[in-house]
Amino acid sequence: MKTTLRRQWWVVTDLDGTLMDHRYDWAPALGTIRLLQRRGIPVIPCTSKTAEEVRRFREQTGLRDPFIVENGGAIHGENADGSPWQQRLGPSWQELRPQLSVLARDLGQPLQALDDLSDQDADRLLGLGGEALRQAQRRACSVPFVSPLDAESRRRLQQLAKARQLAVVQGNRLGHLLGADVSKGRALAVLKQRQGASEVAVLALGDSPNDLPLLHAGDRSIVVPGVDGPHPDLQAGLADGRFKLAPAPHALGWSAAVERWLPGLLDDVNQVD
Fold first, then answer.
1. What mean pLDDT is reported for the chain?
2. Cβ partners under 8 Å of residue 132, min gap 6
């Protein structure tokens, strides 16, 4: 006898700072990922990472589910014959990259793009070097950059971007320049439509402001805290009960939160001979 879910669920998760710590270690989550795979529940990365980076992660974890990259800039997956497909959802890197210089001029502050960082600076800021850094720098539909430190400059930058029909979202360590309609939440909606899964339920997990559209789109949404607690921009959702808080940072908290919710995901099952 086997169990199958009457209602399909997806686990849609951010990677950096959520499933991974800031040294990119996700090993404590591997057992839970394997458990979800055995249960037939897709694990769908929804991340600021590039497609190259996510493909490497999928190879390491054995995932075969579709995925969302560059903060919702594109969705990727595989056809029944194993051939890859992709769908871009916003402007290209080539269109966006010159706009960062324009925004820096209007802001009156330098905005250093990820692709301009030296190996030394990238290692200091991101813990990346070599081919791992090259994969992070090869963007298709977003421009990560070193954000201004003060909140007022970040607010003004968002206003300037909006006036140019663009968007700036903030991750843990970098800002990201995107098309105006690009977000993780919109990309999830497009992916569900493409997969013929409009009724699928989503367990969403994230840790930073760029995850807010994903968390708002989830049927159940979990904030994974950093070592200093949850990001301040996610506190409102926690306070009013829209989001739940994982019990620990990064992969350990991710695993504990998913396994805590797993019985609820499986309480509507059908026993099949």
1. 93
2. 53
